[in-house]
Design goal:
The complex is a heterodimer of chains A (about 190) and B (about 180). Chain A has eight helices and two strands, in the order E-H-E-H-H-H-H-H-H-H. Chain A has helices at about 15-20, 30-40, 45-65, 75-90, 95-110, 120-135, 145-160, 185-189, and strands at about 10, 25. In chain A, helix 5 (about 95-110) runs parallel beside helix 7. The chains are: A mainly alpha (about 190), B alpha/beta (about 180). At the A-B interface, strand 1, helix 1, strand 2, helix 2 and helix 3 of A face strand 2, helix 1, helix 4, strand 7 and helix 5 of B.
């Protein structure tokens, strides 16, 4: 059977919309007030979770840094996964600065410039910055001090990344040259 | 370029989500529970949970689920693989269900890879309650045609109807039939 004969297009249906009409309806504003109350009520839990996640990343990094010889790719991959998780949960849990610093760390680790002389030091700076943010419970953008920390680590990471072209993505395979544009997300959504 | 508008009535401003069943898949327990609790706050009736794709598929085989919300990076079966397995499954009651992929991967080539695996919407991490609600309502309000072809199975990737489109025709030029549903 040719490709032409095997294409099936099933028209959209509105079953979900039909299911979403009922006597217990609420507006978007009412739904968001309820959901934001849930987030607020869990602030203490999120603080503890963030402390634990950053401590785990720091412990893993310090153990990795102590190993003799070159870094092993599996260790960098594990560290990258931890940074990626922190990036994803930071702002959702009330710590956007954690997201920003973890994003910078992930960018560095996703295409790790293993041979760059400052690679290890720049990771260390990111890890210690994350520890400072959570130790001081720096919520929101962290104010002037927080933004200064972010600017410092981001600049350090960019300097190392830009000095080492044509790197391989460690969690997601090869990446194209124009891979640093997060706004591309909106093309799909 | 004309946007394809759904034929149903205009978007509502109130929703009763109590009849919906949603499966949340994330290996981060705290993130998973936060999404679960947000969904309950929105009024969603049933929220199922799984920590990775394999466990999610087991639930999907046994239970009717209206919408799947899943993380991308999980082990052993990640959200990408779960999407492929689900779209190809013959033993799942609702293999065409909308999939909202939560991910910190927002770079273009990764977004396109997720789209080509058959997801419906993406939700960038970190996200707010407002963003989650927005994606949920978009899924309800703007259902898309479902495509089964040799190269792709999933929601129609064409969100815009462009009559003057002159690019490559990745789908076969003429569909053999249109099925009801």
């Amino acid at each position: 059977m040719s490709d032409k004969m095997m294409v099936q297009i099933i028209p959209p249906n509105h079953k979900l919309k039909a299911k979403a009409g009922g006597p217990n309806s609420m507006t978007k504003e009412q739904a968001l007030i309820r959901a934001e109350a849930v987030v607020k009520s869990r602030a203490a839990e999120f603080h503890q979770v963030s402390i634990a996640a950053i401590a785990m990343l720091a412990d893993f990094w310090h153990a990795t840094a102590k190993k003799p010889g070159d870094f092993e790719e599996k260790d960098i991959r594990t560290l990258a996964k931890m940074a990626h998780d922190l990036k994803g949960q930071g702002a959702t849990f009330g710590y956007p600065l954690v997201t920003d610093v973890a994003a910078s760390l992930f960018k560095l680790l996703d295409r790790p410039p293993l041979k760059h002389p400052a690679f290890k030091e720049v990771i260390e700076v990111h890890v210690s910055t994350l520890q400072v943010i959570i130790a001081h419970n720096m919520r929101g953008d962290g104010g002037g001090a927080g933004q200064a920390l972010l600017k410092g680590v981001s600049a350090a990471a960019e300097k190392v990344i830009n000095a080492t072209p044509s790197l391989k993505g460690i969690l997601g395979g090869e990446q194209p040259d124009d891979d640093d544009d997060d706004d591309d997300f909106d093309r799909f959504s | 370029m004309a946007k394809v508008e759904p034929k149903a009535a205009a978007a509502q401003d109130r929703y009763d989500l109590s009849k919906l069943a949603i499966l949340v898949v994330d290996d981060n327990l705290h993130m998973r529970r936060l999404v679960r609790d947000m969904l309950h706050a929105f009024g969603v009736g049933q929220v199922h949970e799984a920590a990775e794709g394999g466990a999610a598929l087991t639930i999907l085989r046994q239970t009717w689920v209206d919408i799947l919300i899943c993380d991308w990076v999980m082990e052993p079966v990640d959200g990408f693989e779960l999407t492929r397995m689900l779209r190809a499954a013959s033993d799942v009651p609702n293999p065409m269900l909308p999939i909202i992929m939560m991910t910190g991967y927002t770079e273009a080539h990764r977004v396109l890879a997720a789209r080509d695996a058959g997801i419906t919407e993406m939700l960038a991490k970190p996200f707010s309650a407002g963003k989650l609600y927005q994606r949920l309502i978009a899924t309800i309000e703007y259902p898309r045609a479902f495509i089964r072809s040799p190269r792709y199975t999933g929601p129609d990737r064409r969100r815009f109807n462009n009559p003057s489109y002159e690019g490559p025709d990745r789908r076969a030029k003429k569909s053999a039939f249109r099925a009801g549903g």
